[in-house]
Design a protein that fits this description.
The chain has helices at 3-28, 33-39, 60-73, 75-92, 101-108, 224-261, 271-274, 276-304, 310-341, 347-359, 364-376; strands at residues 114-117, 135-137, 140-150, 158-164, 174-180, 186-188, 203-212, 263-264, 269-270. It has 381 residues and is an alpha+beta fold. It folds into 3 domains: 3-108, Butyryl-Coa Dehydrogenase, subunit A, domain 1 (Orthogonal Bundle); 114-221, Butyryl-CoA Dehydrogenase, subunit A, domain 2 (Beta Barrel); 225-376, Butyryl-CoA Dehydrogenase, subunit A, domain 3 (Up-down Bundle), CATH 1.20.140.10. Strands 2-3-7-6 form a 4-stranded antiparallel sheet, with no helix packed on it. A 3-stranded mixed sheet has the order 1-4-5. Strands 8-9 form a two-stranded antiparallel sheet. Strand 8 and strand 9 form a beta hairpin. It starts with a helix and ends in a 5-residue tail after the last helix. The structure holds flavin-adenine dinucleotide. The site of flavin-adenine dinucleotide has 23 residues, from strand 1, strand 3, helix 10 and helix 11. Residues 116-210 form the Acyl-CoA oxidase/dehydrogenase middle domain.
């Protein structure tokens, strides 16, 4: 599969499955199993995996396009896909000796959805500092943890779980483990009823003395933090930026459609024909959206050809994208007025979904702190 085929497959799924169901799934907080079932045959679950395990071996450019395409139709499904790709990359980067090849082949074959379970009730958005600690018992480890938000909770076949290493000395001495969904002691701890991203099942999960065999330890003891920063963070920040771009494009399209169709019958004009102020706000939305697209292109270029400024771009991208998505969808709410407020349009879902980007860790605030430290030469952690 090449880039164009992947994006066209994503568009077909977005048009056929995501867009028609997005409104109802959002209303009911319903996870779209149909969307996930379609991703496998389309070759998208193993998008970035190497060909040896059946993957499409495509890069960040394709990932960004696929996620943007999904998010234009349904940001919840786009987030589910993004968390899957991030977790898959972590599994693929597993240490020597990890028995992950069957999982990777299942992912490529479209039989396996995975996700990240990093955030904990105790350390909140500081996902790099789990408070749970793995305990070693003979060859195996035992995990007991309260994971506060896990996208695809109860729907994934596996979870990439962080915990402090058994002998870890500092708050970032974490290790990553692959926990199968049928592991005794693993359970979803409550419902997901968020303001936005309502259809992605980001529920809390509990691990109660889950026994993990050595082959399912993904990183060396204490090397979880490195994997979070080097494997997960670039993809996650690129992907959340792409989700934001999809939301912005959908907001521009939805606003334009409303301005072209809603009428002042007493004036014999559409809203767009009648009010220059609305046209100007639509223009600002378009300018901001295209600016975000250019930023994402720049980040893709930095990921394809890493250089000194790559980590800074990774940090900047998500921080900026979260703000742009909130600004563009807020303007859409204002321009579309009562029609948006009364939920006649999809705009209010975009507005609610856009707010998740800034909340998801690393949050916009934390990213700004990191960027400021990086500029001043102060260690990030
Ligand atoms: C829809 C959704 C899906 C999610 N999916 C997953 C998932 O799949 N896996 C997963 O592991 N987690 C997931 N999360 C969790 C997410 O990544 C965050 O950990 C969580 O939302 C943060 O919760 P909090 O606001 O309680 O954090 P808090 O740490 O309490 O943050 C509160 C406020 O303090 C600010 N703040 C915190 N630290 C700093 C700092 N150092 N400097 C400046 N400001 C700071 C934050 O920006 C925020 O505004 C998801 C969250 C959401 C909303």
């Amino acid at each position: 599969m090449d880039h164009a085929t992947a994006v066209s497959n994503a568009k077909e799924i977005a048009d056929r499955i995501l867009a028609p169901a997005a409104r109802q799934n959002d209303k009911e907080g319903r996870f779209s199993s149909e969307a996930i079932a379609a991703l496998g045959p389309a070759g998208l679950l193993g998008l970035m995996l190497p060909a040896e395990v059946g993957g499409a071996a495509l890069g960040p450019r394709t990932l960004a396009s696929v996620i943007t395409t999904f998010a234009e139709a349904d940001a919840s499904a786009a987030m589910v896909y993004l968390m899957h790709v991030c977790a898959t990359a972590t599994i693929a980067a597993a240490r020597q000796g990890a028995t992950v090849a069957p999982t990777l082949r299942d992912i490529s074959a479209g039989r396996h959805l995975t996700t990240l379970a990093f955030s904990e009730a105790g350390s909140r958005s500081h996902f790099w500092a789990p408070v749970s600690r793995a305990e070693r018992n003979a060859a195996n480890v035992h995990l007991t943890a309260k994971k506060s938000f896990v996208t695809s909770a109860g729907h994934a076949q596996s979870y990439v779980v962080s915990a402090l290493s058994p002998e870890g000395k500092t708050a970032t001495d974490s290790t990553l483990y692959l926990v199968a969904s049928d592991t005794p002691g693993l359970s979803v701890a409550g419902p997901w009823d968020g303001l936005g991203m309502r259809a992605n099942a980001s529920a809390p999960m509990i691990l109660e003395d889950c026994e993990i065999a050595p082959g399912l330890q993904l990183t060396d003891d204490g090397a979880g933090f490195k994997a979070m920063l080097e494997v997960v963070l670039p993809l996650f920040n690129l992907g959340t930026s792409a989700v934001a771009l999809g939301l912005c494009r959908a907001a521009v399209a939805g606003t334009a459609s409303h301005l072209n169709s809603a009428r002042f019958d007493h004036l014999g004009q559409t809203l767009g024909e009648s009010l220059q102020t609305l046209r100007a706000q639509l223009a600002t939305m378009q300018i901001d959206t295209d600016g975000l697209a250019a930023r994402i292109d720049d980040l893709v270029d930095h990921l394809e050809r890493p250089r000194d400024t790559t980590m800074l771009r990774v940090l900047e991208s998500k921080a900026a994208a979260g703000e742009v998505a909130i600004a563009v969808t807020s303007t859409a709410m204002r321009v579309c007025g009562g029609a948006a407020f009364s939920k006649h349009l999809a705009i209010e879902r975009l507005f609610r979904d856009a707010h998740a980007g800034a909340v998801m860790a690393p949050t916009g605030d934390v990213l700004r702190d990191f960027i400021g430290k990086a500029i001043l030469g102060i260690p990030l952690f």
